[in-house]
Amino acid sequence: MALWARAQQLPQESLQKVRAIYGEHFPIEVRHCLATWIENRIWTQEPEEQQRFFVEELVQELQTHAELMLSPELFVTKMKLIEASNLFRRQYSHAPHELYTYMRRCLALEMDVIQNAMGAPYIAQPQTERKYSELITGLQTVRQKVNMATEEIRSLQANIESFSLQYHECLKNKGHINYIQQSGPLTAERRELEACLRVQVEEMERKLNASVAQINQGQMELVDHMKENISTLRQLQSQVLDEELIKWKREQQLSGNGVPMQSNLNTIQEWCELLADLIWSTRQQVNNVARINSKTIVELRQPHLVEMLDDMSKQVTSLLSTLVTSTFVIEKQPPQVMKTNTRFTATVRLLVGGQLNVHMTPPRVTVVIISEQQAQLLLKSDTQSGRGKQPVECGDILNNSGCMEYQPTNRQLSVSFRNMQLRKIKRAEKKGTESVMDEKLTLLFQSEFNVGGGELVFQVWTLSLPVVVIVHGNQEPHGWATVTWDNAFSPPGRVPFAVPDKVTWIQLAETLRIKFCSATGGDLSEDNLRFLGEKIFSLCSRSNLPINPMELNGMTVSWTQFCKDALPERNFTFWEWFYMVVKVTRDYLRTLWCDRLIMGFIQKKQAEEMLGKCPPGTFLLRFSDSELGGITIAWTGEGNEVFSLQPFTSRDLMLRSLADRILDLTQLQFLYPNIAKDDVFSKYYTKPENEMLKNGYVKPVLVTTLPPYMSSSPAYAHSPDSHRNTPSVHSSYFSASTPAQTESSFMDSELFEQIRAFEPEGFDDFDYFGGNVAMK
């Protein structure tokens, strides 16, 4: 992403710091309008001898850019650019290196602000920047050619008007000759007049013939120039729509999995607006030439010119249609896991709405939800025969209509749906092992745009990213499995919403890493990813796991392995286990994980081997294999016997933080390998309250303790899980019950959804707690 594009995404406080960098000697308007050129030109330090022409080149760029600003809304900016070009020429013509150095220093300061705000160094991407620079240069070049074509049309019209005057003068003289011949006997005087007129007519016809040749040549050259402009516009539009806009949409989809977006929609809008202006101007030029040709005299009309102009008109109108329909985009996607009877939002935007004055007749946008099959039919019918019939809705959305509004400050035509709500949903028939959380639906946004005062009318529509509709919170994990897989692995140009059934482990590992990092703020190491790989592939073969990381990365993971098949000797899937680990880390363990105090992804046997070599009191934190969203403390007791505390889940950590529980347990002394626990956990301990509550009561405090038998006979601390080797110890104030199944066939049924529709809204979070509470 360009440096200036990054700057525009900064929070308001940092944006003010960037604003303060630019002043009279380097106006911020220049920085904004020439962002790509400036960064390409001075990003790499040049020798001083190469900076001699810097001021001349900068002034030329400013003047060219100012000439392109034809819209009344840009008049003030245009004047700023002209003033800046005069200032640069006046003050720095004799010392271009001073201006070069000053502007380079401003960019360095801007980069510092961005790095401090985003917490990551800015890395320039020369190839991308060069590509953008070529695109801007191409748009500016075709703008100049379109302006030249306008001048050629004026010249052609002037030549035709001049020809018409001479032609009628010639006809007038011929009329005089006929009159002389037919009005009586020819006297010497009349013969002399006739001869004089004949000489004039011959001279006029010679000039007229030359004018005809010149006009015909001018017409064909003009048509060739307009054809060339249309061809160039088609190429540039393809680069903007088929490459940059598609890339932005793909980044938007990947951002649903936590990938940071690089492209800037505002920059793409600037390109689209310039394209719209050029295409509309070219269309008017073609129409003007056709009008001039239709009104000119027969002698000047060339064969096939009408057909050529008609074909060009169709081409340029098609370009405009493609531009309008393709730039109707969903700026803010609706939630991809959507719960019924829950409010949600979305925003759609027309990137060329301001440039084409679409807001003069404010368009209304409607939203409906359709199935995957209906989306396929819609795309097929639209491709084959234009606008197809209205697709069948599969649900009822409240507040699903709104008018697009134009914001002059940012030139954006958009509408935000802030209070939509899916009231009911009609499910498609399920096949085989499919569940309701496997079903993908999509929101269809539709509108009609009038361009050119109603001269052209465009029917437009766009589809949201696939959504999964749920009716109960327990369906959320599987819903996110469907969405995560689709976001990560959807191929370009797919039929809605086809995805591969299998991917390589290295592809899935990167998706899981990004998902975890986005949710928790902390990354996964190669060892963490290897642990996850071994965990998911234990479904196939627990004894023949590849030792070579390259071999592991090349293995394929199927959709059923990912989120359908239960892990060995467990009643939950790999995805359910990973999803709950992410959730508990995000909600309660984020800071501990980011400080690398949680080992987390480690085999129980490996933890035993590591702790067995350590002195008593050494402990580590790892995610439980047997309990969803559970984190356990494994520690070395007397005699180097290793114990594991009953895993803490979100319910436990909601009552008392993990750091406070580690403080409570005196048996825990050193974080593996040999770090005193207070040195790293003390900053996370809850500070004790030294005062009574305002109502006069003393607030009790929950304390985690081990049961009494631990101090006398650790051998009694057997695990309730027959598959564990390590003894599992219960904390005294809370006993976790056996975890219930996370998903059953009943939850996938239609009956379950119907029952949920009649339950109280808060029933999802209702739970029972048991156990003893120790108070201090």
From TrEMBL:
<dbReference type="Pfam" id="PF01017">
    <property type="entry name" value="STAT_alpha"/>
</dbReference>
<dbReference type="InterPro" id="IPR013799">
    <property type="entry name" value="STAT_TF_prot_interaction"/>
</dbReference>
<keyword id="KW-0805">Transcription regulation</keyword>
<dbReference type="Pfam" id="PF00017">
    <property type="entry name" value="SH2"/>
</dbReference>
<dbReference type="Pfam" id="PF02864">
    <property type="entry name" value="STAT_bind"/>
</dbReference>
<feature type="compositionally biased region" description="Polar residues">
    <location>
        <begin position="725"/>
        <end position="735"/>
    </location>
</feature>
<dbReference type="Pfam" id="PF21354">
    <property type="entry name" value="STAT_linker"/>
</dbReference>
<keyword id="KW-0175">Coiled coil</keyword>
<feature type="domain" description="SH2">
    <location>
        <begin position="577"/>
        <end position="701"/>
    </location>
</feature>
<dbReference type="GO" id="GO:0005737">
    <property type="term" value="C:cytoplasm"/>
</dbReference>
<keyword id="KW-0539">Nucleus</keyword>
<protein>
    <recommendedName>
        <fullName>Signal transducer and activator of transcription</fullName>
    </recommendedName>
</protein>
<dbReference type="GO" id="GO:0001228">
    <property type="term" value="F:DNA-binding transcription activator activity, RNA polymerase II-specific"/>
</dbReference>
<dbReference type="InterPro" id="IPR046994">
    <property type="entry name" value="STAT5_CC"/>
</dbReference>
<dbReference type="GO" id="GO:0000977">
    <property type="term" value="F:RNA polymerase II transcription regulatory region sequence-specific DNA binding"/>
</dbReference>
<comment type="similarity">
    <text>Belongs to the transcription factor STAT family.</text>
</comment>
<dbReference type="GO" id="GO:0007166">
    <property type="term" value="P:cell surface receptor signaling pathway"/>
</dbReference>
<keyword id="KW-0597">Phosphoprotein</keyword>
<dbReference type="Pfam" id="PF02865">
    <property type="entry name" value="STAT_int"/>
</dbReference>
<dbReference type="InterPro" id="IPR036860">
    <property type="entry name" value="SH2_dom_sf"/>
</dbReference>
<dbReference type="InterPro" id="IPR036535">
    <property type="entry name" value="STAT_N_sf"/>
</dbReference>
<dbReference type="GO" id="GO:0005634">
    <property type="term" value="C:nucleus"/>
</dbReference>
<dbReference type="InterPro" id="IPR008967">
    <property type="entry name" value="p53-like_TF_DNA-bd_sf"/>
</dbReference>
<comment type="subunit">
    <text>Forms a homodimer or a heterodimer with a related family member.</text>
</comment>
<keyword id="KW-0238">DNA-binding</keyword>
<keyword id="KW-0727">SH2 domain</keyword>
<dbReference type="InterPro" id="IPR001217">
    <property type="entry name" value="STAT"/>
</dbReference>
<dbReference type="InterPro" id="IPR048988">
    <property type="entry name" value="STAT_linker"/>
</dbReference>
<dbReference type="InterPro" id="IPR000980">
    <property type="entry name" value="SH2"/>
</dbReference>
<feature type="coiled-coil region">
    <location>
        <begin position="139"/>
        <end position="166"/>
    </location>
</feature>
<dbReference type="InterPro" id="IPR012345">
    <property type="entry name" value="STAT_TF_DNA-bd_N"/>
</dbReference>
<feature type="region of interest" description="Disordered">
    <location>
        <begin position="714"/>
        <end position="735"/>
    </location>
</feature>
<dbReference type="InterPro" id="IPR013801">
    <property type="entry name" value="STAT_TF_DNA-bd"/>
</dbReference>
<keyword id="KW-0010">Activator</keyword>
<dbReference type="InterPro" id="IPR013800">
    <property type="entry name" value="STAT_TF_alpha"/>
</dbReference>
<dbReference type="InterPro" id="IPR015988">
    <property type="entry name" value="STAT_TF_CC"/>
</dbReference>
<keyword id="KW-0963">Cytoplasm</keyword>
<keyword id="KW-0804">Transcription</keyword>
